[in-house]
Amino acid sequence: MAKNKKSNDPMSKLVALCKRRGIVFQSSEIYGGVGSTYDYGPYGVTIKNNIERLWWDEMTLKHENIVGLDSAVILHPKVWDASGHLKNFSDPMVDCKECKGRFRADQINGTGYGGGSDSGAGYSDGTGYGGGSGSGAGYGDGTGYGGGSEDVNVCPKCGSKNSFTEVREFNLMFDTTMGPVADDTVKTFLRPETCQGIFLDWKIVQESARLKIPFGIAQTGKAFRNEITTGNFIFRTREFTQMEMQYFVKPGETSELINYWKEQRWNFYLSLGINEEDLRWHEHPKDKLAHYAKEAWDIEYKFPFGWGELEGVHDRGDFDLKAHQESSGKDMTYFDDQTRERFHPQIVETSAGLNRAMLAVLADAYREDEQAGEQRIYLALAPHIAPVKAAIFPLVKKGGLPDIAHAIYTDLRKHFPVFYDFQGSIGKRYRRMDEIGTPYGITVDFQTLEDGTVTVRWRDTLQQERIHKDKVGEFLRDRLG
RNA sequence: GCGAGAGUAACUCAGUUGGUAGAGUAUCACGUUGCCAACGUGAAUGUCGCGGGUUCAAAUCCCGUCUCUCGCUCCA
Predict the structure, then answer these.
(1) ipTM, two decimals
(2) If you write DSSP's letter for every residue of A425-454 in order, what string do you get?
């Protein structure tokens, strides 16, 4: 564990809070941790699930023409050939020994680098990618690249000649093998994006759910990318959850629907309680589009480390369906009963990162203020995101107060995630709840013995009001929707 | 992979010229406590990242190694 964090920067403080309160923390920590993998503790998984459920409901409940799907993580290896991932997710790289710059081998002038960009050799013969499973020996000794050519390679950054390292293969997909017998295995990949499963299944989904264009298929699930560089806490990790909806539209209607979904998706982040001033649109320049995209917009959030992408709204055109039709030989067209036309649907994609959405929610909710000269840290989470909706406290341990408080707790927990605590001073118990963003604190005091009322304290302002203990459930229901 | 930095309790850290580890916070128990991290008493928690070497003796000196963090390269 590194101890050189600048503990004053906002990101470090958020990370520390996440660990302290069991929201998100380093995975495999007893073994020293594994780079950029994180586990979500009791409160973290609840926040994450809350966001995921809101997304799911937003898609499938609020749109009558969007249905859900849960496709496999491991797909037929040919999928990744057809999708372009084998070709585009695998880059041969060289480093300049002089200036330490790194470049794609096929972008260096001069030699036969790049000449043999043999991405087609991929999975089937088992030799193409990553050769040795396991340890660092993975990146092959550059077969095919930089053959025997003696031409001069010039570093585009510092101008040094022939200062490059061996070509190394960077494969951004995790590969694995199917089948227990080593000689008889098929090389497969963990999906680097969830949407391919939607493309493979769209016809059976469309037919079985009797959907007419335009319609959408929504899916959440894990995706895996062997990122060269990870970092910024849970912003970029090698294993992450995507929330993707692929919208199948008639040719010619794409741009209108892009605008519709841009508005929908923008509003989703507002509904999570994120400050609109911390959001912006970023359009990908045409010359930097991903290999499948015709038009691409990102919603970005102003993280403590800078603007970062939360979600993309993309025009994928008919790239994917045509690619799979060509590769599989199966018809991927849609027949329009009304116009008697057959065509490849155009696809508008909304592709969000759940972990990033959660990080944005946490970063946006992180607050510090001062109460009676003491610093207070709290998460101003929207109540419908908060992992615990209310905490119930007896003011002190005597006078039968704990019994009354516990009875209220037992009753409430049938309907809400609530927490009961009697340990420590009342102020300390409030603060503990503040740090996980619990919106309401309900305290049983001596007045409760007289008239049955309790205090309800609102997290952000510390203001209290008295309501009858029998009305607490109703009070919470009103405020939590 | 390159460069830089860092590894001592759950957290933040201290540990003198080598003498087998401490503080605060947090946690738990009991007491106390009339609303915002109060107080008292007590308890539990470490192979000082790992391995080797020097030494009577290593958290400390030497060598190796691992991991993490940041920057760069890359990024759908």
Answers:
(1) 0.82
(2) -HHHHHHHHHHTT--EEEEE-HHHHHH-EE
What six digits make up the tokens of A371? 């109460």
pLDDT digits (tens, 9 = 90+) for A96-111: 655 555 566 655 544 3
A430 CB neighbours strand B below 7 A: yes
Q: How far apart are CA A432 and CA A405, in angstroms?
A: 18
DSSP bridge partners of A375:
A370
Sequence-distant (6+) residues with CB within 8 A of A347 are A199, A246, A247, A248, A249, A315, A316, A317, A318, A320, A321
- Give, in Å, how far the C1' of B9 lies from the CA of A433: 25
Q: Is A377 helix (H, G, I), strand (E, B) or coil?
A: strand
Instruction: Say yes or no to pLDDT of A467 above 90.
Output: yes
- Give distance CA A2 / C1' B65 (Å): 17
**Beta strands, E only, A115-236:** 168-171, 175-178, 186-189, 215-224
The domain covering A52-84+191-354 belongs, at the CATH homologous superfamily level, to: Bira Bifunctional Protein; Domain 2 (3.30.930.10)
Query: Range(s) for CATH 3.30.930.10 in chain A?
Result: 52-84+191-354
> At the top level of CATH, which class does the domain A388-480 belong to?
alpha beta
Q: CB count, 10 Å around CB of A69? A: 20
Q: Which of A77, A76, A59 is nearest to A68 (CA)?
A: A59
Which residue spans of chain A are classified as CATH 3.40.50.800? Answer: 388-480
Residue A84 pLDDT class (50, 70, 90 cuts): confident
**A330 C-beta neighbours (distance < 10 Å), count:** 10
Say yes or no: Cβ of A95 under 7 A from any atom of strand B: yes
Calculate the angstrom distance between C1' of B45 and CA of A26: 20
A395 touches strand B (CB under 7 A): yes
Is the Cβ atom of A457 within 7 Å of strand B at any atom?
A: yes
pLDDT at A235 over 90: no
| Amino acid of residue A168 | R
